[in-house]
Amino acid sequence: MAERIVAASDHAGLALRAEAVKAAQARGFLVEDLGPFSAESVDYPEFARLVGERVARGEARFGLLVCGTGIGMSIAANKVPGVRAALCTSEFEARMSRAHNDANVLCLGQRVVGAGLGTAIVAAFLAEPFEGGRHARRVDLIKALEK
Ligand code: RB5
């Protein structure tokens, strides 16, 4: 069965979210897009919460969040227990966030990366497995910070 991704953005991330969703679908993921679906100004923490909670509850394998810089989304998503959100501006960061940090939410900034790099970051994130081993111990220490 296809793995599920839940995606959202704010008004400043609409265009890149659309491209990122297509990139994930092209890699066989089932993407649930939570919007928004108009250009009206919205508050990114509300969308970060929706996506973060879905991921934390195990209802989606990964989350994908886009705002203007990706910063607000990553700050907000990382407040949700169980979320390890990574703001990535390169394919290298995307690979490392999966391999070493077992990131489960990818954050992108539409005002920072264009569609070409943005979708390459999505592909790199989705393709990279978590390495485990010593990194699992460190991720467990991150989880312990939530208690
Ligand atoms: C919206 O103008 C902008 O602040 C938001 O998209 C994001 O960049 C916040 O971190």
Would you write up a description of this structure?
This protein is α/β, with parallel strands linked by helices and 147 residues long. It has one domain: Ribose 5-phosphate Isomerase B, Chain: A, CATH 3.40.1400.10. The chain contains 6 helices and 5 strands; from the N terminus they run βαβαβαβαβαα. A 5-stranded parallel sheet has the order 2-1-3-5-4, with helices on both faces. α1 links the parallel β1 and β2 (30-33). The longest helix is centred in the first third of the chain and has 13 residues, at 14-26. The mean pLDDT is 98. D-ribose (RB5) is lined by residues 10, 12, 44, 67-69, 71-72.
Helix-strand layout with pairing:
Layout: E1 4-9, H1 14-26, E2 30-33, H2 44-56, E3 62-67, H3 71-77, E4 85-87, H4 91-99, E5 105-109, H5 115-127, H6 134-144
Parallel strand pairs: 1-2, 1-3, 3-5, 4-5
Helix pairs in contact: 1-5, 2-3, 4-5
